[in-house]
What does this fold into?
Amino acid sequence: MRTLRIGSHTTLVWSLVVSAALLAGCSRDPQVLKKRHYDKGMSYMQRAKYREADIEFYNAIQIDPKYAEAHYGLAQSLLKQNDWMHAYQELMRTVEFAPTNWNAQLDIANLLLAAHKLPDARDRAEIILKDNPDNAAAEVILSNVDAMQGDAAKSLAEAQKAIEMAPTRSASYLNVAIIQEHAKDFAGAEQNLKKSLELDPKNLTTTLALAEFYERQKRWPDAEQQFQAAIALDPKKPVSRATLAQLYLIEGKKDAAEQSLREAKSALGDNPAGYRLLGDFYLAQGQPDKALAEFASLHSEHPKDSNVANTYSELLIGQNKLDDATKVVDATLKNSPSDTGALIFRAEILERQGKAQDAVHILEPVVKNNPDNAVAHYQMGVAYAAVANYGQAGTEWGEAVRLRPNMLEARRALAVLAMRKNDTATLLQSSEAMIRIAPRMPEGYIFHARALFAQGNQAGAEADLKKVIEIAPQSPAGYAQMGELRTAQKRPDEAAKFYAQALEHDPSSVEGLTGLVNVNLARKEPAKALKTVQDQIALVPANSRFYVLLGEVELKNQNSTEAEKAFEKATEIDKNNVQAFMMLANVQASRGSVDQAIGEYQRALQANPRDSRLDVALGELFETKGQWQQAQDLYQSALQIQPDYAVAANNLAYLMLEHGGNVNVAFTLAQTARRGMPDLPNSADTLGWAYYHQGVYNAAIDLFQEAIKADAKNPTYHYHLGMSYEKANNYAMAKKELEYTLQVSPNYSQAGEIRRVLAESGTKAE
It folds into this structure.
């Protein structure tokens, strides 16, 4: 017995060893391995785990590149993921290795049809029908090709033939119904939709098709019943719930739509496409506060959903809640440092915080790594514009619309830039694109009207503005713009009526009130202009810009004390109203209170540190006090914010030339000023003075002569011209210009220098 037990044990061990060896041999068999990967892929497909399925199918193909079944499985997975291009490639490989895989051939034909490659789709369908003359699906493809080519009769005949081939095939009846509805045979379409659903009662596509048919027929109860049936068929499908909400909106049942999406959120809490529906609804309905609250809730529930986080960030930025937006963006980037959306939002936050150059630095690698991202290019354009690099801004916005022609924000930015540059052709092109993209939005028509008016087409401009009023009769924009048109046409009575209408529709309309006041002033009615502003302020007491307008009218009425009060009130209401601060400081400086004006500018800079206008204005005040170093620092600060700011460049260049600065740097700055202000005599004078200091006297003389043509009695221009003539050895002209300087300004700051030069020039002339 002992021997027997030993023998049995030995036999068992041997059996296990043999089995292990056999298994090991099987695991190394390529045919077994590829089938194992294929089977795993199909298992993942059944559970809708398409990414995992992709990996298994790829593994199988790596073992056997000609494994047609794996190529087809991978194609099906890619189709489920809407990756049409790669799916097409895998389908073509499938039929390369298995030409009689008719399902793959059908899939190829359908992709060709969707891509509008109609001859290729027809050829593929005919290949299928040659070997499978009763293939109804291929016959349907022929029907669809003919429908898309406009041959309705042939299309219908082929669709009906498909039914004859396979009378129990549900999809064929659906295809006939679509053709019949297009031909306005609504009774026939409904009959075939019902027949399709009768053959396949659980088909979600047909159920939704019947619901949408009823919706188009405005048979609201029938449509709602079918949408509810679709939801019952597959409660986890977002599309059924979204289309039901859309039906409610069409019926004007906004509350019902909102409630249905609340139910969708509850039912689809694990599906991003489902739990976003309510928030996206609020966005589409123009309810930013509700959208913000909803996405705040979603972000709390799904903190790792970067799409939710980015939408939440965008909403926070839109409401200028930059600190909160920064926290959300930082959290997203902590989890995913290269998240493109989050990086774009970080740049936008920085730009809004006045750190546009930092925004540019963030966006440069984003655009480089994502050259096809239109939003990145658009935001880069915004950042460039904020640092006054308008040429590069225009390039980025142009790239954005090339990538996404219907990007309204980029089109709008290009239109504004075109207005800034007086580029009528680009303004016309951009506005036409805006109208095409959003024909029910008034802004495109306003830009278009401006372009037409600039071209002298007043009738066309008026037609555009009438369209604005038709589209948005409650908005002040159309009336205010029509007032501007009538003002330009010198029809003040009509202009006043339009401006008044703008204020009736929006008592806060600055354009309406400004236009009405300007009409009063043009009529020499300053008292009426003053009362107009005061009456409107009584209606809207918290409008900072109204107080600026009040101050301007008080100045027109020679009442600087009341003007100062109005400007001060404007700054109290809105500390970011830079115009109000500047007007207030100007009034104070004009009555000799320069230190008080300096204090106002310093207060304004605390609230608006990135507004270069304030640096320049404050610098000019320091110049009046002879504090040129402080002025120079401020001009340099302005140029750091806005490198091509012509006034700052001009002032800094002149100070450097006057106080022993680097002549070459000053010359470069003077050129920048000249480019930015080509028609101003001041920029011609500064550049001429820079040429003088470089010893290029003939070029300097030309520029000073140009400046004097524009401002004949300016003593500085004559002084500079006289000094240049003296250096060029033209002593007679030097004497003439320098003597004229003393004639118009006997106490000129350089009078002593002029007398010295005159004395020396007289000696040289002899």
Notes: Residues 2-27 form the longest helix (26 residues). The chain has 45 helices and no strands.
